[in-house]
Amino acid sequence: MIREISILTVAIVVLYFLIKKRRLDFLAIYCFSSLIYYLPLFFGKAVLVVSSNNYKEYKLSNYFYLIIFLNFSLLLFWTSIYDMYVQKKE
Fold it and tell me: Domain-by-domain residue ranges, the chain?
């Protein structure tokens, strides 16, 4: 359940950044770099490559999904505050 909520939150934030007409700022860079950083969460496992034919797979727990949910929820909050107050003054 937390995995689906986290992925829905990420989708909402990414769609907001793609649909809303914004210039490239630190929040947009933060959004898309976080998306790349948390990419293993969408697959549910992380792979540690030891050598070319030796690797270990780790199944991710729900705590990782809670972290991505909090990260992108705060990002959506910061972006909405920035769009409402800072960009109005410019």
Answer: 2-89
Phi, psi of 61 (to 5 degrees): -90, 175
**Which residues are 48's β-sheet partners?**
56
Round to whole Å and give the CA distance between 30 and 69.
Answer: 15
Comparison of pLDDT for 89 and 58, the residue scoring more: 58
pTM of the model: 0.73
- Dihedral angle over CA of 12, 25, 18, 11, nearest 10: -20
The alpha helices in 1-90, defined as continuous H runs, are 2-19, 26-37, 39-43, 62-81, 87-89
Strands 54-59 and 45-51: antiparallel
Dihedral angle sign, alpha carbons of residues 13, 18, 20, 21: positive
Q: What is the pLDDT, as a whole number, of residue 84?
A: 83
